[in-house]
Amino acid sequence: MNEAIIKLSAQGLNLWFGNKHVLKNVSVTFPEKQVTALIGPSGCGKSTLLRCFNRMHDLSPDARIEGKIMLENEDLYDKKISVTEVRKRVGMVFQKANPFPKSIYENINYGLKINDIPSKERPAIIERALKESYLWEEVKDELKKPATRMSGGQQQRLCIARTVALRPEVILMDEPCSALDPISTRKVEELIVQLKKQYTIVIVTHNMQQAQRIADQTIFMYLGEVVEEGRTDDIFNHPQKDLTKNYVSGHFG
Ligand SMILES: Nc1ncnc2c1ncn2[C@@H]1O[C@H](COP(=O)(O)OP(=O)(O)OP(=O)(O)O)[C@@H](O)[C@H]1O
Asked: Which residues form the ABC transporter domain (predicted)?
């Protein structure tokens, strides 16, 4: 990770919800075209941190943020960058698949439309996104079928297709497999490993095996602070801090 380009970073990030100090002086880096897992016990601030990276807190009136978030050398909170542009460059996949109540095709087409992609270019982009998400073979003959009739795992891969269709630079994933069975989970994990060839990925997970299977780098958080970050193998097998050791060995959390 040392030689890799740093695609995304937070520097001295603090976040409060009202009086509650939820992120405390967080400084982290995310190497380009690698998967970084955010781990830590419930409530330590993983999702809150993830959401800072595509300005999901902009609409929360009680959230106050200090510090910097840089996408390469651009400040994502600079007033000159619109939220729409940030979210195009930094896509997000949520815990529960959330397809629109429309056809499989329209689920991807919609994002292209609102981002002003010319209609003649869209069919090829939709096909590419479905191929990149390992869904094309399963759905190519039923693109008009309502997305809500797909299996949970397929719906989650459709949400990933919707995100990659816009060619983001970073993909944020908030426990994308927590509602999936083991087979669908494996498919999404394989997909994530493929996607990192093109995208920088940050994933929140409670699943320690998952972090070890797919993440190049792991960040362990506790009570709003980063305790330790490093190569996944080091965090799990040679942690520097007792707190990390106790967490990854299942003593709490
Ligand atoms: N919109 C909000 N308003 C007030 N407090 C919030 C809000 N969102 C999160 N919190 C609080 O911030 C803290 C961090 O929550 P967060 O969801 O980021 O933790 P997490 O590590 O992702 O937890 P989990 O693993 O359970 O999802 C928690 O104490 C939570 O109650």
From this structure: 8-248
